[in-house]
Automatic annotation (TrEMBL):
Region ranges (Disordered): 1-28
GO CC terms of this entry: nuclear exosome (RNase complex); nucleolus
Entry's Gene Ontology BP terms: exonucleolytic trimming to generate mature 3'-end of 5.8S rRNA from tricistronic rRNA transcript (SSU-rRNA, 5.8S rRNA, LSU-rRNA); gene silencing by siRNA-directed DNA methylation; histone mRNA catabolic process; nuclear polyadenylation-dependent antisense transcript catabolic process; nuclear polyadenylation-dependent CUT catabolic process; nuclear polyadenylation-dependent rRNA catabolic process; nuclear polyadenylation-dependent snoRNA catabolic process; nuclear polyadenylation-dependent snRNA catabolic process
Limits of the HRDC domain: 482-562
Keyword annotations of the record: Exonuclease, Exosome, Hydrolase, Nuclease, Nucleus, RNA-mediated gene silencing, rRNA processing
Domain of life: Eukaryota
Subcellular location(s) per record: Nucleus
Pfam families attached to this UniProt entry: DNA_pol_A_exo1, HRDC, PMC2NT
Name under which the protein is recorded: EXOSOME COMPONENT 10
Family, per entry: Belongs to the exosome component 10/RRP6 family.
Protein's organism: Salix koriyanagi
Length: 740
């Protein structure tokens, strides 16, 4: 066989193979992109390369599909490069004109590199935002916040996730997950819990804050003759003055649809003045507040929602902060005007703190839902139960400092008050028709007004730092720290408090409790060790790394002074565990007696819940009622939880045994920093009337025994034994703190 014959045979063999190659290309262009991409790796092996590619281009069966692919590819590349959505990177992504395939390939490589770099940067931003917003359910976040789910919620979440994972096998199920399950997957919400780019309202609107370590002065209240206490205006009034016992023959008219109700966003003083005039002519109105605790030491009221029967108003209380009190103070204090609120415990003290507003004549629908023994006490449930409205709660954790407010957030804020007056009508009729549980009990409507009265009688108190404040950190007794570690906790706690006051930031933003305890556990003594320990970015720690290390070293040198405190914490933890175990046994016995021996399993969740409540109860007995959002457990927005109390976006425990100090009728609510996973959840309690007896009374007696038997002496940060005392001096300046 000659060389020519051999070449002809080879050519014929290659011609026979070319239809197979072209068929692969036809298949690639004809099928859907998703399936083509999944098989791209295998299909690409069938396409010739280098010299073979140019040879097969001599055959139409191969060349035509290649040209089609090239045309489609170039069209896609041109559309990518000229997309208006990429205007910021247009110079880098613009597809070059009149280039050969090699130059186009180089351009594509460069574009891929650019996209990957942008993707990496976006991932870093996402991780940083997720650490700040904590959108992944059930995960402890490095900023100290945690989304706490009950067992039922955890099961439903797991089921939802499993259903989503099954549905993701479909073609477009991923889109549904992205739209509807963002909070589970950790994706950013429409309006996240914390938006770092928002300028602080304190700076934007020149809001003056007084974070000094001195008691809050209720300057708008009268004082007693001896000047020792303030007098709440409610002290001169009777609950009976507020009750409306009339039952109409006509069913209460439903509220107007929110779409057809007049609405005004109050951002100017003249509009606030007009609103005040309208309220002076009304005999009732509904009120709610939206709050941010994470980026302020004491917290900021961001919005005030007010609704009448025919109009809705939203006041920008950040912009009009200094004007709200002068225009609305007397209207809120007027006992002839009924104020309807839901879960008003937190709202009451926020109004006092920010605007000097004190409420008389309150009807709290959260308290009414308890007296009526409804299935749930949340505002969400009341809206659905009485009005058939399904509230969108995805904005309950929103960063309400955001301006301008999106339409969705405005609607959510309006819904919190728009239906409240109608709900009041229906609940009042139910309360009037409800028989007394026993002959000695107050009528149900009177009971609601008494509870609402107690809520109003709370008085705001600023958190004051004391030498033993650090001992109230949730999780500290169970941490099992030695003297050196406890000394570090005390030192960092004091540093954090001083910096938070000076910078007007929450302690959770400065240094989350979880991170603080982790640092104390590991005891890093060099900047590099501390930096490696930080799993996420904490700007104040990074900014003053050497100062924090100096505090750690100095604290370890004073550890001998903390030996006694370590022992008392151990005893406290053991007593708490013993009380928990005893409570679980008692609960189990009661369940068995009620359910014939089958109640133990059904009561397991209640046992665990009671155990956690007891630990919190011990902390409460030492620190008073806790203010939400401290120690890394802050809240961006107040909302109404399952129990009708004010939550911070997470499950909230409201204890009936909250310690409050009664001062001549006024409940002085001491607001302290909580810490750890459940720390912020301790602040929803108001002075409540004790309705239960038996088991609750026994638990209170046990708590009192523990409280009286455990007396924790404090050893100062400098190692000098001193009796506990209140630090009332101005906090140390930040410049002094950071001086090594």
């Amino acid at each position: 066989m000659t060389q020519n014959d051999a070449n002809m045979v080879e050519t014929e063999e290659e011609e026979e193979e070319s239809p197979k190659e072209s068929q692969s290309l036809h298949t690639l262009t004809a099928t859907q992109l998703s399936s083509s991409v999944s098989n791209l790796s295998a299909s690409s092996r069938a396409i010739p390369s280098n010299k073979d590619f140019h040879f097969y281009c001599n055959f139409d069966e191969f060349k035509i599909p290649i040209q089609e692919i090239a045309a489609k590819s170039q069209s896609l590349l041109e559309s990518i490069g000229s997309s208006s959505s990429n205007h910021i990177f247009k110079d880098k992504l613009q597809f070059p004109a009149d280039v050969d395939i090699d130059e186009a390939y180089d351009w594509l490589v460069n574009v891929n590199d650019e996209i990957l770099e942008r993707f990496d940067a976006s991932i870093d931003d996402f991780k940083r935002a997720r650490e700040e917003t904590g959108r992944v359910a059930g995960v402890d976040r490095e900023d100290g916040f945690q989304l706490v789910l009950g067992k039922k919620n955890k099961k439903s979440m797991i089921k939802t996730m499993s259903d989503d994972s099954v549905s993701c096998a479909g073609g477009d199920s991923g889109v549904k997950v992205a739209e509807n399950k963002k909070w589970i997957l950790g994706n950013k919400a429409k309006v996240p819990f914390h938006i770092p780019t928002i300028r602080k309202p304190q700076e934007e609107h020149n809001i003056l804050v007084y974070n000094s370590n001195k008691a809050f002065d209720h300057v708008w209240l009268e004082r007693s003759e001896d000047g020792m206490r303030v007098i709440h205006p409610l002290e001169r009034l009777s609950v009976l003055d507020f009750m409306d016992t009339s039952i109409g023959d006509v069913e209460p008219a439903p509220p107007l649809p929110i779409e057809s109700t007049a609405f005004k966003l109050v951002e100017e003083v003249k509009d606030l003045k007009e609103l005040a005039a309208k309220l002076r002519g009304a005999n009732e109105f509904a009120v709610d507040l939206e709050h941010n605790q994470y980026r302020s030491f004491q917290g900021l009221t961001c919005l005030m929602q007010i609704s009448s029967r025919t109009e809705d108003f939203i006041i920008d209380t950040l912009k009009l902060r200094i004007h709200v009190g002068p225009y609305l103070r007397e209207v809120f204090k007027d006992p002839a005007k009924r104020k309807v609120m839901h879960g008003a415990d937190r709202d009451i003290v926020w109004l006092q703190r920010d605007f000097g507003i004190y409420i008389c004549n309150l009807f709290d629908t959260g308290q009414a839902s308890r007296v009526l023994k409804l299935e749930r006490n949340s505002l969400e449930h009341l809206l659905h139960h009485f009005c058939g409205v399904t509230a969108k709660k995805e904005y309950q954790n929103a960063d309400w400092r955001l301006r301008p407010l999106p339409d969705e957030m405005i609607r959510y804020a309006r819904e919190d008050t728009h239906y409240l007056l109608h709900i009041y009508d229906l609940m009042r009729d139910l309360l009037l028709s409800k028989p007394n549980d026993n002959e000695n009990a107050d009528p149900p409507l009177l009971e609601v007004y008494k509870r609402s009265y107690d809520v109003c009688m709370q008085l705001y108190e600023k958190e004051l730092f004391t030498e033993n404040s650090y001992l109230n950190m949730y999780g500290l007794p169970s941490a099992g720290f030695n003297a050196q570690q406890l000394a570090i906790v005390a030192g960092l706690y004091e540093w954090r408090d001083a910096v938070a006051r000076a910078e007007d930031e929450s302690t959770g933003y400065i240094l989350p409790n979880k991170t603080l305890l982790e640092i104390a556990k590991e005891m890093p003594v060099t900047s590099s060790q501390l930096r490696r320990l930080m799993k996420s970015k904490h700007s104040y720690i990074e900014r003053h790394l050497s100062s924090v290390v100096s505090i750690i070293r100095h604290s370890m040198q004073t550890s001998a002074a903390f030996e006694a405190a370590v022992q008392h914490l151990k005893e406290r933890h053991m007593e708490t565990k013993a009380l928990q175990e005893e409570t679980e046994v008692n609960n189990g016995s009661e369940a068995q007696s009620i359910h014939g021996g089958n109640g133990m399993n059904s009561n397991v969740a209640a046992c665990h819940e009671t155990s956690a409540q007891l630990e919190k109860g011990l902390l409460k007995q030492r620190s008073g009622v806790v203010e939400l959002g401290r120690g890394g457990q802050g809240s961006s927005a107040k909302h109404h939880g399952e129990n009708g109390e004010v939550n911070t976006g997470f499950s909230s425990y409201i204890s009936d045994t909250s310690p409050t100090a009664k001062v001549a009728g006024a409940t002085v609510e001491v607001l302290k920093k909580p810490s750890g996973a459940f720390g912020a959840l301790l602040g929803g309690a108001a002075a409540k009337r004790k309705l239960d007896s038996g088991k609750k009374v026994k638990e209170e007696i046990k708590l009192e025994k523990i409280r009286s038997s455990v007396n924790l002496p404090f050893h100062s940060f400098m190692g000098i034994n001193e009796p506990p005392k209140l630090a009332v001096e101005e906090p140390v300046g930040v410049s002094e703190i950071f001086t090594s």
